[in-house]
Write a structure and sequence with these properties.
The complex is a heterotrimer of chains A (about 290), B (about 290) and C (about 250).
Chain A lengths: L2 H26 L7 H17 L5 H19 L2 H4 L2 H21 L9 E2 L5 E2 L2 E2 L2 H24 L1 H11 L1 H5 L5 H27 L1 E2 L6 H14 L6 H15 L7 H15 L10 H11 L4
Antiparallel strand pairs in A: 1-4, 2-3
Helix pairs in contact in A: 1-6, 1-9, 1-10, 1-11, 2-3, 2-5, 2-9, 3-9, 6-7, 6-9, 7-9, 10-11
Chain B lengths: L1 H31 L6 H19 L2 H24 L8 H22 L15 E3 L2 E3 L1 H23 L1 H11 L1 H6 L4 H27 L8 H14 L4 H21 L6 H15 L9
Chain C lengths: L4 E10 L2 E11 L4 E5 L6 H9 L6 E6 L2 E2 L5 H6 L2 E3 L12 H9 L17 H14 L14 H15 L3 E5 L7 H16 L3 E5 L3 H7 L2 E6 L2 E6 L1 H6 L1 H16 L1
Parallel strand pairs in C: 3-8, 3-9, 6-7, 7-8
Antiparallel strand pairs in C: 1-2, 1-4, 4-5, 9-10
Helix pairs in contact in C: 3-4, 3-5, 4-5
The chains are: A mainly alpha (about 290), B mainly alpha (about 290), C alpha/beta (about 250).
Amino acid sequence: MSGYVVTILTQIAIQAIVVYGLNVIVGYAGQISLGHAAFFGIGAYSAALLSTQAGMSFWTALPLVLLICALCGLLLGLPSLRLKHDFLAITTIGINFIVQAMFLYVPFFGGALGISAIPRITLLGEPLRGTHFLYLCMFCLGVVMAVCWLFTRMFAGLACFALREEESAATSMGISPVRFKLLAFMLGTMIAGLGGSLYAHYMRFVSADDFSFPLSVSFLAMLVLGGMGTLLGPLVGALILGALPELFRPLADFRILFYALMLLLMIRFQPGGILGESSLIRKRLLPTFLGGSK
Amino acid sequence: MQLLIEQILNGLAMGSIYAIITLGLALVYGVMRILHVAHASIYTVGAYAGVFIFHATGSLALAFLGSMLICAILGVLIERLVYFPLLKHPPYVPLIASIAVMLTIEEVLRLLAGPQIITFSARLPFPDLDLGGIHLSSTLIAIYVITIAILLFLWYLTTRTELGLAMRATSQDMPVAGAQGINSHSIVSLTFIIGSAIAAIGGILVGIYYNEVYPTMGAVPAYKTLALIVVGGMGSVPGAVVAALLLGLAETLLIGYLNVPFPRDALAFVAMIFVLVWRSEGLFGSK
Amino acid sequence: MSPLLEVKNLSIHFGGLHAVDGVDFSIERGEILGLLGPNGAGKTVTFNLISGVYKPTGGEIWFDGRRIDGLPPHAVAALGLGRTFQIVKPFPTLSVLDNVLVARGVDRYPGVSSLWTSWRSKKEVQAAMALLERVGLADLAKRKAGLLPLGNLRRLEIARALAVGHKLLLLDESFSGLRHEEISRLETLIRDIRLDGLTVLLIEHNMRVAMGLSDRIVVMEYGKKLAEGTPEAIQRDERVIEAYLGRKGEADAS
């Protein structure tokens, strides 16, 4: 594999991990979250600080990063308890801006210069580069997918689905909205934080600019396009929207325009996602492959 | 003291501009319950159309009219081609579509006109005033006057005309309004036309005030105005105006005058969170 | 033996309106109590107060020896109180079976370790299918709930409520909008439920059904309790007749 392809795949893998986190919050629990880049950033900055300030390795820092993310997810999930829909959407945008502003202005986070000289991840004494790092990312992605799959099979996941479908009916069955919404935010943030940690050690430099609102939109777009609430949706979405800008690279100056147009067309005509319920793929292609309808 | 007054005037001007932009957003949200983030890019188109028409014809009046026309058409196209077909989907779908539209428009502007800042040095037909040593430029006066004019126009429209009544009915309940014989889709499109034309005015005023027109000038207002309509109470136009004026004052005074070390652009959201904690439907909103 | 449910001087006001005003009644174990009254009498509000959706502004609610007013709905459900909704609320994209499986988890959701067990185990599926059999929805188990017609959705509501309410069942207009055969099927089901030892509180507009099923009836009007007694007594009660006919008279006059 050429270095270029490895780079792209690594980025896609990391983004897919983050989008799996978003899928728990938005897809499983039905809470709108337009500030997911903030959670990604919290994971990245935690990993960056723990490795550069406290000298911890990626592995020893990881439980701590996950814990920090869980706590932040708990805190930043609180608005979802009182607000709904548009109010919640805008609040999550606000959270993105505020967290980003914190990274930029609070000196502890390095200000405009960010945090640099983050060490590579080492495994058995060897620093992981290139293809080996990609394997690590893919491994983490696999773990995340397995965690999500298990979650959907457990009562915790079922409770989240019920809340998403019809909150008042769910509460009449013993499901506490506070408990499970916050649980979803915690889990989603932890997963995004894992992605952030990988990102920090990959780029070896993080700054506030990396975690802005357009990135949150990008994550949500990946999730929506791949199919919210599905098991493969985040991966498919990350692949498509991650690969598109690269496919458009020959278009040079027109790249972003084509990306935006693609996004617009996809969301306009297939808003349920590629793998979603009423998508072309589900309706036409899958029945052909699987022989007849369900 | 003089500095304070000047800053207050600046803050009010800033707030007026926010109000003009946010108005369109509040109007649209009122009738369609869609977060029309792309509204900020219509405002940018307004600025560009204004500056180009002005440079081509030398007439500011033509610039305003032409720009309002172009933006009105653009606004209603977006509504019909993008938003209306997506109404039946969950709200984040039209939101993502709106962001994609905004990005597309920004890129088209950048490719057509270039990424550089274009100057818009025009003189609005208002006098410069000197009141007790405080200098008010013609642009500043223009902003106040035009904002008040727009507000009066909207007030008259919504409270004194049948059209306004239809708009209010549609914003309360689209199907019921439809049953009353009001063609709600026409009302919605008309709201977009009005809102977009107002955005055009805002774009030109900002272009002249700062003497700058550039492709991403809509980015920051785009998200601030979201916070503003929440603070104002979602579809409430008076709420949006009050929130906008307060934000303009707060930004200018707190950060420009008192030099509080706080990120300017996050202020809108922090204020929003405080308001939501205190009153979860916004200042003028209804439950 | 103390009553299963006791409502004492229950009140709630919204703004200036006393939606429920000083209502008292109780339900004995194993009985079917009908809650009747004209539109706007406060019946569904009373349900919402009992099931925890609303917090009363006055009075007390006692369930199985515990005071439950002010508890959130999920806490009330965990005590064995199940309910249906006047406007059906299925989980639309989940299958009929899965809808019931969600309700089956009522004992798990409050716990911590119980959350991390599989919900589609054989045992659970069997129990859920048994409930679906009781309400006659077994062959629709795999169908997506959002696609079902109203009659089936009402039965699904009951299946779910049965899974949750092993002590008390609150049925809110479960007969609304049903066809004739569906109504008699549902009546039989509710009588069966009572034979199992469950207690039922039902709101019902269909007079024939309400009178036929209920052991006792409480009539509400304008948020207050108007009358209480056996179906026969209620039918002869002048105040009740006045409340219903009086309304009807007004409607005819306007």
